[in-house]
Amino acid sequence: MQFHVLTLFPEMIVQGLHTSIIGRAVEQQILSVNAVNIRDYTLDKHGKVDDYTYGGGAGMLMQAQPVYDAYKAVCGERKVRTVYVTPQGTPFTQKLAGELSKESELVFLCGHYEGIDERVLEEVVTDYISIGDYVLTGGELPAMVMIDAIARLVPGVLNNEVSAETESFHNDLLEYPQYSRPEVWMGKQVPEVLLSGNHTKIATWRLEQSKERTRNVRPDLFAKYEAKEKLIKDLSKEKRNYIHMMESLSRGRAELIRRKGSQVLLYDAQIGMAYLKATDEVWALEALECLPKEAVVCYTNQHQMLPLLKRFWEQCEILEKRNACYTQKDNLYVRHKDIRSRNCGDIICYQAYEEETPVAYIEIKKDGIPDLPVLYHRPGAEPNALQQEQYLTSLIAYTVNKQKETGCIPYLQISAQDGCARALLEQMGLYVSGDVVYKVEKI
Ligand code: ADE
Fold this sequence. Notes:
By secondary structure, this protein is an alpha+beta fold. The chain has helices at 10-17, 20-27, 64-75, 94-100, 118-124, 140-151, 161-166, 199-217, 219-235, 239-250, 281-288, 306-313, 385-405, 419-428, and strands spanning 2-7, 32-37, 50-52, 60-62, 82-91, 105-110, 127-130, 184-185, 188-189, 255-260, 263-268, 273-277, 297-300, 316-325, 339-344, 347-354, 357-364, 374-375, 411-415, 431-432, 437-442. Strands 10, 11, 12, 13, 14, 19, 20 and 21 form an eight-stranded mixed beta sheet that branches. Helix 1 packs parallel to helix 6 and helix 8 (199-217) crosses helix 9 (219-235). The radius of gyration is 26 Å and the shape is globular. The two termini are 30 Å apart. 30% of the residues are buried. The chain binds adenine. Adenine is lined by residues 85-87, 130-132, 134-136, 139, 142. Adenine (ADE) is lined by residues 85-87, 130-132, 134-136, 139, 142.
């Protein structure tokens, strides 16, 4: 990932970001940090980059021309997401860090003095972001804060990727307390349960600690957490039909946009995906109007919502799906042993190999839902029906077990009319939803 920082103090950025974890990732070329001195682009012979504000007022303003030329020198004609760090922006959150970490390139524009001429901001900025309700002397520290939070979510930057998943703010809970050696320090004993070796008990203790901390320190976050937990519990009464909504919530992806009794609208901003459970058209329309314009997909189990969604988006395509989830305790048996994983950008791909040749694959797309596995076409070397089934079931079983490892309930979706897939999955021990789940895609 490439970060460009447009600043009057490039040495601050270079010194701040070329040490520790971020510094190591730069050395390993997982990241690059390019600090660009705006002053190098001024046309003023004295190197001036600021001037008085029209209309009067205290302080100086950074002028449009050097900022624009510095931006152009970095981006040329490319459209790169450009963040202006400003107390006037939207609040920076872990969710926003996650979203920005998916970009391959980002520009940060740091202001000084009283700010920057509005006209150049209108020309180049895509996001106005603040790190908190206080005012700093310049944008360099906020830019470094954001870069640090974004960079650590880029694959490979942290050695231990699970830690980015389980820490504070994942699922709206603060992190639980942690302890290292010695077992007793200044008379204080490490909590007994952590020495028990019982992973279920440890996980339960940690969750309770997280909840208690959040309840005390951040009641706002805790209320959000409780609303989601309550919703997951309600949806779990019809688990097979609503597993897609439950999992989107519990995997920390979807946010609760609106709820009234059993009617609910969720939205996953990372992929523009909404989930509508509603029976009342008036309520549903009001709720849909709260969605950002980036929303491009909406799931609903209610057939009567389809005309409304068609009107809402004017042009859309409707796919009929069924959920297939695996809720049993034991792992599924994977008969075919040679399965390898491959990461292609946002997509995870597992491939079954036979004598060093890939024979079938399964993909998990950005939405986290696995597709059904597919056999590679091998003219003259087609596997027989038994082998084919073995590759396909093994890939499904492997994917289910992998998802289970991360603590979520594994599920996938099949076409509502695909009787063969349904029979195969049921034979493997997955439950297939009775409801058709409509996937409405905006065109
Ligand atoms: N520049 C000055 N103060 C700031 C803040 N709180 N967030 C982002 N940029 C800033």
